[in-house]
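Lab notebook, bench 4. Still working through the backlog of constructs that have no structural model yet. Next entry is a single chain of 231 residues. Request: give me the structure tokens for it.
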Amino acid sequence: MLIVSNIDLTKTIDVMKPTTFLNSSIREPVLNINNDYRYMKMGYYVSLHAEVLENLVIPRSEDAIDAYRHPILLIKASKHGIPTLPHIVTDSAKQIIARFGFPVIVFAVNPFSNGGYKTAQNRSALYRALRSLGLSHKFTVCAQPLRGKMVSVKTVFGQSSHGGQVEEVARKFYEAFRLPICKLHIQLFDDKAYLCGIEKMENAEIVPADLRLISEEVAQISKIGEKYWLR
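Model written out:
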């Protein structure tokens, strides 16, 4: 198993840097540990290069793209039994208001987005969100109703520190998309957790406890071997 990572893991783990891997032709299963798997970012290119070499890889480039294409994220998550909310993809404030009223959450669909979301409690806030996230109306946005409390949680191999329903969403998300590291935006209401969006985890947000957890997971994956990639 080859571990490719842009993150400085514990010294007990042998890690190859992404730039080194991209210039190699190594043929073995690849565990791609990266803080950013968005399209045309380093994490995406590592997975794509592994696939070009016909290696098994986690995550697959297709799953990384699906996770960061907001409407596809919600549809695919729902098919995997992850609770989600109704959503609409549009550039029309009138359609959003007619469908959900206020308040609403607005996510970018444009491929240049860094993630995150905006909330709108009224028309003027919604117009600002559409202009900002849609890059002056060049792109549509994905809107959802805001019914409860929004939380953003770090996840490492499907684990988070929140527990309960949030932990269940994180676990199912990893099973569906296999992104080792990311942040999930989750809405809590009526004692239930709903997946609303995803964002990359900044390097500065990765603390020693996260690194220890990553190391533990890598050790377990090493024991399972190639079967882990085929699950």
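Notes after review: The radius of gyration is 18 Å. Residues 2-66+205-228 form one domain. Flag for follow-up if needed.
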